[in-house]
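Why should sequence recovery work at all? Because a backbone constrains its sequence more than one might expect. Tight turns favour small or flexible residues, buried strands favour hydrophobic ones, and helices have their own preferences. The token representation captures these environments compactly. In the example below, the structure is given first.
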């Protein structure tokens, strides 16, 4: 039986959906307005799309219930999921809803995961899942404290910049994203720096992490949660929905997210709060 129309309405006011600050000012402009109009139509209630100033602010807004739902990167999904928030759907890119990271060194260096003590590491960014958080989780799962084993650690600002630091010999190891699939040895090198893809070798692969996800605040009415899942998983069925997927979410489609799917990131995501 279909839920009554008023079951989707919130007496507190408009449905508030948050987009991450990484989308930039454009998220509050054309893309935000387009998503706002779409959600307003399919949910049958007034909708407001907001862009918090930081990832921390986005997590706080959702945890406090000041937004009803949010599109968040994996490390934010891990933080809020560990605190009881449900991640409803996750994005699918290149046919996969997960990815992993590959620790990389210069070709011929012969590094291994258990012999990194005294080496110099350079990472993409503190909030980068493939470029920092996944390798941190991997090392800690092996009983290695990154703060102790490395001679030094730094942040280059991007995957490519970190690779450049390693190639010129100013660091020994870094990490980049890699396609999902434990039987594949593929990495993102061919995309990040194709002309230098043969100048590096893999030190090791991390566990897989889900892609970005859409989370819903604790206490969101069950009828609204069900409707949101239906709306997002059906986006790819229409031209308008596919346009929003491409332009706003950089995804092919959404799939329902398994419960506690971001647990591989819990330790490092919470430690970085």
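From this structural description, the recovered sequence reads:
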């Amino acid at each position: 039986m279909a839920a009554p129309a008023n079951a989707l309405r919130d007496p507190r006011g408009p449905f508030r959906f948050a987009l991450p600050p990484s989308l930039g000012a454009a998220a509050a402009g054309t893309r935000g307005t387009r998503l706002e109009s779409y959600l307003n139509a399919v949910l049958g209630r007034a909708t407001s799309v907001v862009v918090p100033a930081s990832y921390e602010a986005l997590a706080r807004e959702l945890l406090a219930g000041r937004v009803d739902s949010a599109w968040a990167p994996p490390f934010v999904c891990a933080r809020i999921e560990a605190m009881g928030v449900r991640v409803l759907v996750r994005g699918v890119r290149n046919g996969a809803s997960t990815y992993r990271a590959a620790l990389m060194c210069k070709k011929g260096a012969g590094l291994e995961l258990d012999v990194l003590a005294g080496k110099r590491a350079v990472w993409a960014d503190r909030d980068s899942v493939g470029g920092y958080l996944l390798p941190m989780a991997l090392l800690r799962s092996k009983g290695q404290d990154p703060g102790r084993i490395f001679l030094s650690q730094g942040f280059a600002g991007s995957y490519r910049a970190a690779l450049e630091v390693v190639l010129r010999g100013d660091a020994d190891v870094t990490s980049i994203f890699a396609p999902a699939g434990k039987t594949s040895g593929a990495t993102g090198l061919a995309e990040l720096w194709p002309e230098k893809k043969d100048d590096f070798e893999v030190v090791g692969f991390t566990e897989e992490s889900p892609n970005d996800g859409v989370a819903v605040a604790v206490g969101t009415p069950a009828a609204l949660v069900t409707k949101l899942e239906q709306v997002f998983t059906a986006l790819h069925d229409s031209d308008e929905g596919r346009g929003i997927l491409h332009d706003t979410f950089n995804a092919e489609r959404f799939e329902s997210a398994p419960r506690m799917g971001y647990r591989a990131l819990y330790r490092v995501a919470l430690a970085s709060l």
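A few observations help interpret the result. The chain has two domains: 5-95+211-271, 98-209.
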